[in-house]
Design a protein that fits this description.
Blueprint: E1 14-19, E2 22-27, E3 37-42, E4 47-52, H1 60-76, H2 84-114, H3 117-123, H4 128-137, E5 147-154, E6 160-167, E7 171-175, E8 181-183, H5 190-196, H6 202-210, H7 214-221, H8 223-231, H9 233-238, E9 252-258, E10 263-267, H10 269-272, H11 277-285, H12 290-307, E11 317-323, H13 330-335, H14 341-372, H15 381-389, H16 393-418, H17 421-457
Antiparallel strand pairs: 1-2, 2-11, 3-4, 4-5, 5-6, 6-9, 7-8, 7-10, 10-11
Length: about 450
């Protein structure tokens, strides 16, 4: 049988749907024997964790599996009555406990490989810092893994509080229903260290993190310094300085308020090292279920790897997507506290304003498209200014979609209040159709951009 090289092996993504609102896709690197991204999901309690083993360390895969096991066990004991602050405290405590366990694993693996009883005895009572210094002196790296843990805690108003804990360079993002992408976690790596050492500014670090080409870097930093930054690009973006298993690591925890329709996305660096934040947002905004979104992120990262450009990075790729449900069953809605007369009046007033806005945007859109073609539309000065203020035709399209979505949400809330199950189902269907139309619209937009680039190059 002919030997097959690693480069010829095509990994198959593993897609798991845990519930209607939680899904994960993971794909191992062609350069790894096993996927060193470990995950756990408890769909009933809406808890998820992602652990990316440090490939250059002592058994990163083992470290990530141990972290997964320890943290999931620690959090299983948190009572269902715990509030967001109690969950935040529990997640931090689980990270601290897991830190001890991974360090212990790393020491065991190191002394086993070193096979020097005298050195082991001499360092037995030394501090962890001293032991890790010895590991580095011997040309090894400690066992380590990143950790990004999230807990979705539902609120009575239909939204949720996202409680999170983190160390390393995996990331937790939130995408608001209005299209705003927010990164909740801070990468604890070489870029942050370079800022602390005053080698680069915080603004420059953000630029390097999102850069896609050497040309961008040269333009930003100038020919001489730009060459140095481009040479150090991979080292600056990919070095991990804090992780479970590394002594002195820092843990970041927090609570983020989410609303119905918002998404939480947990990614390993195989996703966000390949894709910029804007590219991640674009893939998510195409819509679909958490299962479809996670699969799209992994697929897009894989395509970037194949392009062999500055940002390409062959690595394990994992994305976990959690959605705050937009729809509750009408039978449950009837049991919810009744909307007050004052709230009802305000909702109806807001709905009328939204409808008027949608009608106005519908009239502006053809004018904006006429402007996009370089023609002068038949509209007043105010209309032209508003089109330009929204960023042209695409901005008008985006605002119209957001407004139409909000209209349907309010209409559905009113139907739920009235206990009209048929109306709730009908509006939900319309909202799904709107999203499908939006996805086609964005695909067309992407193709137009590609065609424009091709025509310029030609």
């Amino acid at each position: 049988m002919p030997r097959i090289s690693k480069a010829e092996i095509t990994p198959t993504p593993e897609i798991e749907k845990f519930s209607e609102h939680i899904a994960k896709t993971s794909e191992k690197s062609k350069d790894h024997a096993d996927n060193e991204d470990s995950t756990f999901v408890d769909s009933e309690r809406e808890i998820a964790g992602l652990f990316d083993g440090m490939g250059g360390g002592l058994a990163g895969g083992e470290a990530s599996k141990l972290a997964k096991k320890t943290i999931s066990q620690e959090l299983s004991g948190v009572p269902d009555t715990a509030d967001a602050k109690q969950w935040e405290k529990a997640i931090r405590k689980s990270l601290e406990k897991t830190q001890e366990e991974v360090i212990k694993l790393g020491n065991q693996l190191f002394f086993k490989q070193l096979d020097d009883p005298f050195a082991e005895a001499a360092y037995k009572d030394q501090s962890q810092d001293k032991i890790q210094e010895l590991i580095m002196e011997k040309g090894m790296s400690p066992a380590g893994t990143t950790a990004s843990v999230v807990k979705m805690l539902e609120r009575p108003d239909g939204g949720a509080d996202l409680v999170f804990g983190h160390t390393g360079d995996s990331r937790i993002y939130v995408l608001r229903k209005n299209g705003e992408l927010k990164r909740l976690t801070k990468d604890q790596g070489a870029l942050e260290e370079a800022v602390q050492n005053n080698y680069i500014t915080k603004e420059e670090a953000g630029f390097i993190d999102q850069a896609t080409s050497k040309e961008e870097i040269l333009k930003k930093f100038g020919p001489e310094r730009g060459q140095t930054v481009a040479f150090l690009y991979k080292d600056l973006r990919r070095g991990v300085k804090s992780a479970l298993g590394l002594s002195g690591s820092e843990f970041q925890t927090g609570i983020e308020r989410l609303e119905p329709g918002d998404l939480a996305i947990d990614t390993s660096d195989g996703i966000h090292d390949n894709l910029t934040d804007e590219e991640i947002k674009t893939e998510i905004m195409k819509g679909g279920t958490p299962e479809e979104i996670s699969a799209r992120l992994v697929e897009a990262a894989g395509k970037r790897v194949g392009e062999k450009v500055l940002r390409s990075k062959e690595d394990d790729k994992t994305a976990i997507v959690l959605e705050v449900p937009e729809v509750i069953e009408a039978s449950e809605a009837i049991e919810e506290p009744t909307i007050t007369a004052e709230q009802l009046t305000k909702m109806e007033t807001d709905l009328q304003k939204l409808r008027e806005m949608a009608e106005y945007l519908g009239k502006l859109l053809p004018m904006a498209k006429t402007m996009e073609k370089g023609l002068k539309p038949l509209t007043n000065k105010k209309g032209l200014e508003e089109i330009m203020g929204m960023g042209g035709a695409r901005g008008v399209e985006d605002t119209l979609f957001t407004t139409q979505t909000e209209i349907m949400r309010v209409e559905r809330t009113l139907a739920e209040h009235q206990g009209d199950i048929a109306a709730v189902q009908k509006i939900t269907g319309r909202l799904r159709e709107l999203r499908e139309t939006r996805e086609k619209q964005l695909k067309t937009r992407d193709q137009e951009t590609i065609d424009q680039i091709k025509s310029r190059v030609a």
